[in-house]
Amino acid sequence: KMALIIGGIVIILLIIIVSMGYIKAPPDTAYIISGLRKKIIIGKASIRIPFFERVDKLKLQLIAVDVKTSSAVPTADYININVDANVNVKVSSDPLLIKLGAENFLNKEPVYIAKVAREVLEGNMREIVGQMTLEAMVNDRKAFAEKVQENAAPDLNRMGLEIVSFNVQNFTDDQNLIENLGIDNTTKIQKKAAIARAESEKEIEIAKAQAKKEANDAKVL
Hints:
Layout: H1 2-21, E1 22-24, E2 29-34, E3 39-42, E4 45-47, E5 54-59, E6 63-68, E7 73-74, E8 80-91, H2 95-105, H3 110-129, H4 134-139, H5 141-157, E9 161-172, H6 177-220
Antiparallel strand pairs: 1-4, 2-3, 2-5, 6-8, 7-8, 8-9
Helix pairs in contact: 3-5
């Protein structure tokens, strides 16, 4: 009878421990279990041992970062410009990188992560600006964005972060060179269109003249 009572107490204690230790992580948050064992849970349930293990949270959702050059940066052709970009970053869920993310951003709010990422991204953006000409950047924003991502990715990975998207919003300068470059490009396009139209009209006139000649020849015959 005593054995049954002891067995019942043990079962009740186990149920209490299980109910106290049951945790379920949402898909956008990693639960880091530490203590007797180390375990990372994302989007599934697990059991932690109360009093012997603790659970910390690591947010994995997208974080929007507005990256602006704090001062004008000289391009490869020595033109001072400012750049404004919208970037989305997140703590990587890659098994190797998430451990680094846990070391750097455990229990941290997205605002703090965005601040750290912004500093890294601005530094890399300034570096790429110095490697490209103004015309190359303005005419191919995608190429500029890709270069910044390639340059910044290793720095962010070392902290457990990854870039999800990078979009350049604006290039500006104090001398209106970018605006004039746009006008110049528009003029070139208009010129090409005018030449194409003139060539087309010329071909139409030649075709009309040929048709008229063939009609006259037919009449003579």
